[in-house]
Amino acid sequence: MWQTALREGLNTILTYLDPLHLLLGIVPAFLISGAIAALLDRESILRFFGPGANKWIAISVASIAGAILAVCSCSILPMFTSMYKIGAGIGPATSFLYSGPAINTAAIFISAAMLGRIGWARSLSAVILAFGVGLVMDLLFGKARARETIQDSTENPPKAGIPWKGLLVIFILVAIYMVGPNLYKGILMAAAFGIGYLLFTQEQRLNWYRESWSLFKLIFPILIGGVFVASALKVFVPGSVIVKLFGAESFVSNIFSSLIGALLYFSTLTEVPITRSLIEMGMSSGSAIAFLLAGPALSLPSMILINRIMGIKRGMTYIILVILFSALAGSVYELIF
């Protein structure tokens, strides 16, 4: 069994390190993150997502921002780190952290096609959950986060000017995520590099690449280790046990489902066929909803990094909120249908 677990973990890492996935999935994530940190001025971020911004609007926008991205729970972390580092409020930042992997156009339609009503319920619940998590995080930690941002702004005054060049490059890089892994995605990436080279000064280019590399060194090693552990754990959890735990329509089953989903790692959209298989094996509809809501948004490697970025108290609060709200959404679905 240990050999099987080792083989499963290594196979998942090799899949994750596939050159196409690295070039067209991981690299753009870090380039977007580096661009946010290096090319956007702090004033712009604080105006729309900072502690002083209208939290209802900021959290609402962040809650649906994931619709334009197709990222997994780990690929979203560099972008979240950059937003948080620049000074985004904890409410909008955590709403974006959840919505990125949980809500995207591809997931919405694939879930609906493969899971029917459960798929549509997952999509609606994900938007509500993203807003709810961000709002609660803002209520709990918003004031403390505002004090941190004010202190940091005093020590590092914001840059002046409208960052239109940075916005242009970030727009192109985000567009890369909206295109499948094909020739067009490669062309967009080359265009982003070309525009960055032509429009930016040498110092700006160096800052962009330096920030991207810094985030890569911070996140990627932990990410790989976490992916290995999460994949290896699947070997020790037999399918019969999962069905026994998740077959009943109860809040306890939904909690177990969201917890297991949170621990495992899912590449983008892989949670949909996995959930369909579990439903066919006997998983209840509520547990399926909980699994679909917590699974894409969290994973063992992402939880480790979230705690490292936000601190244990805030990180664990976010994780617990996602797990609890996912289970609650599953129970509400069972009550209605």
UniProtKB/TrEMBL annotation:
Residue ranges spanning the membrane: these are 20-40, 61-84, 96-116, 123-142, 162-179, 186-202, 214-233, 245-266, 286-306, 318-336
Q: How does it sit in the membrane?
A: Multi-pass membrane protein
Subcellular location field: Cell membrane
Pfam families per the record?
ArsP_1
Gene Ontology cellular-component annotations: plasma membrane
Which UniProt keyword terms apply here? Cell membrane, Membrane, Transmembrane, Transmembrane helix
The family line of this record is:
Belongs to the UPF0718 family.
Q: What is this protein called?
A: Putative permease
Give the organism, scientific name: Candidatus Atribacter allofermentans
